[in-house]
Amino acid sequence: MKYRRLGKYGMRVSEVSLGAWLTFGGSVENTTATETIHKALELNVNFIDVADVYARGNAETVVGRALEGDSYARKDLIVSSKVFWPMSDDPNDLGLSRKHIYDSIDNSLKRLQLEYLDIYFAHRFDYYTPIEETVAAMDDLIRDGKIRYWGTSVWTAAQLERAVGVAKEMGAHPPAVEQPRYHMLDRYIELEVMKTTKYHGMGIVPWSPLGGGLLTGKYNDGIPEGSRADVSEWMKKALIEENLDKVKKLGVIAKENDMSMSNLALAWILRRPEITSVITGATRVSHVEDNVRATEIRLSNDLLVQIDEILDNEPQWPTAYTPALPDRE
Predict the structure, then answer these.
(1) Helix or strand or coil: residue 201?
(2) What per-residue confidence (pLDDT) applies to 77?
(3) Which residues contact 124 (CB under 8 A, 6 or more apart)?
(4) Long-range contacts, stretch 69-73, CB < 8 angstroms, 24+ apart
(5) Secondary structure letter of residue 272 according to DSSP
(6) Which one-letter DSSP state was computed for residue 175?
């Protein structure tokens, strides 16, 4: 396993990490989830990413139970969670207000059975709460010892600039990391976000680096029953003939170079020095083992040229993923 600094900050994060979205506490049976977590740690993955809203808190509970006991030293782990989306119908159980942030961190720590989080992500930008309130609350959590760093997820470059600027004005801790969607077929962060995070010394830990499984080749011959694409509308929108054709061609290159399609897709992301870690999902132990191999792969310039010729996709503003934010009139 190789490790990279979180942007300009001192914390070192494994290049491949383990995420809990749509898996732990949900589609993956708890025993299997625990086995995948233990295998990841055994392979020296040190970063586990969850969110309160994943499986309505169950993902945090599963991760917390998997880390129980004396087998894993807390100082050797990087655990993150997120705040923004509602967990109930309470009018204050939403967004990035001081109240919601403080209530949510306590609930997340309880479910995870931890005293602090290494990273706490603002899961989306809150248009209804002054950014000063959010920055101050996150700064206070750091000073209270409940979190070590705070970050953002799916924020625009302008929003990141504003957060960093406000933090500087207030003498507060700025966001240290952004968690966007990023993979071979979705490169929009290369337009502005990647430049902004680099300028401010922020790390990038992308989610869905395998395009929800599309870039593993699992959908080349159709949509398996019960798969993510079988139940996800946004995944179905990505399964167009153009993308599938690209994945098939990339699969040939991967095979010719003795790597899996997943290895190729993850190594392609890790080619960028701006990236700290790729957050991978896993529904079985073999997925973890295969994903971790990507940290040993460095793509040659000739291979990158071949990949670019197949992708033939300049970064574009996102259209496939535009989640509706909750109505708060």
Answers:
(1) coil
(2) 97
(3) 84, 85, 153, 154, 155, 323, 325
(4) 72/41
(5) S
(6) P
Whether residue 162 contacts residue 189, with contact meaning beta carbons closer than 8 Å, is answered with no
Q: Match 């603002």 to its residue by tokens.
A: 122
Burial of 274 (0-12, 13-18, 19+ CB in 10 A): middle
What pLDDT does residue 320 have? 43
- pLDDT at residue 321, rounded to an integer: 46
Burial of 18 (0-12, 13-18, 19+ CB in 10 A): buried
Collapsed DSSP state (helix, strand, coil) of residue 186:
strand
Q: Tell the CATH superfamily of the 3-311 domain.
A: NADP-dependent oxidoreductase domain (3.20.20.100)
Single-letter code of the amino acid located at 45: V
Identified catalytic residue from 54, 182, 188, 219: 54
With tokens 């939403």, the residue in question is 94
Residues 6+ apart with CB under 8 A from 170: 132, 135, 136, 139
Active site residue 188: no
The pLDDT value recorded for residue 326 is 66
- Strand-pair category, 12-14 with 3-5: antiparallel
Tokens of 95: 């967004």
Task: Please state, in angstroms and rounded to a whole number, the distance separating the CA atoms of residues 42 and 60.
Answer: 20
User: At which residue do the structure tokens 């159709």 appear?
Assistant: 222
Amino acid at 137: A
> Which portions of the chain are predicted below pLDDT 70?
22, 25, 27, 225-236, 319-329
- Please state, in angstroms and rounded to a whole number, the distance separating the CA atoms of residues 265 and 118: 27
Where helices occur in 171-300 by DSSP H, the ranges are: 193-200, 228-231, 233-238, 241-256, 261-270, 285-292
Report the C-alpha gap between 89 and 56 in whole angstroms.
13
At 82, the amino acid letter reads K
Gap between the Cα atoms of 67 and 226, Å rounded: 29
**Residue appearing with tokens 């890790």:** 270
d(CA 237, CA 264): 23
Residue 245 CB contacts under 8 Å (≥ 6 apart), including other chains: none
Return the domain boundaries, the chain.
3-311
